[in-house]
Here is the input.
Amino acid sequence: MERLMCKEKVTMADLNKMKTPPPTATHFPLSHYEVLSEQLDQLDACGYQWKNLEIGVSHEAMRCFWILDIENPTVAREWNSVWGGRNSHDMAYALLFLAGLNTWVCSNLQFTGEVKVSSKHTKHIGSRLKRMVTRGLFELTQFDAINEDRIAAYEAFSLPEEEQRENGDAKYLSSPFIHDFVVRSMDRGVISPSSIKLVLDEWREPSFAEFHPRNAWSLSNAYTESFKKYSNPHQLFGRGIALTSMMDELVEFTPPALVEAPEDLDIEVVKDRRREVVLN
Here is the structure.
């Protein structure tokens, strides 16, 4: 199932053929291919297993977005970490790397905001690129543990009991609490007014049996299911972070501060040998 809803999907080979505009006095664009290659090379160098890379471009390839799944074969669970990013040549966005989580059963994405490294395209962005990726990767190593605790807190937080409709199907009568929460989430920019019905419909009649329990985890997935309508990845990133903030407040979950990468941490990569280099 596709999760990055860009109108134009491309490959790494496509990115490598795209031209990068020349710099101006104040804007120094980086090649989309160079940015994503640095991210993938460092993942490979550290022995990460990743898959399902999706790349999309828009505005005549001036803007690029990507996501990929980070695998953890040693842990059996219903979700995995996702690492994504964006780059632009038209001064629309700063360069950004950020992490989120993907729920296997429904391919729902939720970007949480803990791992978020960005930089404007200023004169020294080229020299900062490697350090940005290294910092994001170092923080990513702490990300799984945070989300283990976060999802456990969501699952343990019960919401008001709701009656099922008389015909005995899986349709619930949503409570006043849910109605209030959804409206407040619109006010906070988690969803647009047109998405209110989508969230309520998914909450009342979950598409997957795993989200029948009336708890915060099911509510969170009602939102991320509605996020699939967005064709702009920038919206997906921002709304996911806003949702996480609101859900964390609801269940009173406070994520620990991430340990910053040491200044002397340097991940050596071997170019053109992706998926073959592992540092001991």
Observations:
- Confidence is low (pLDDT under 50) at residues 273-280.
- The radius of gyration is 20 Å.
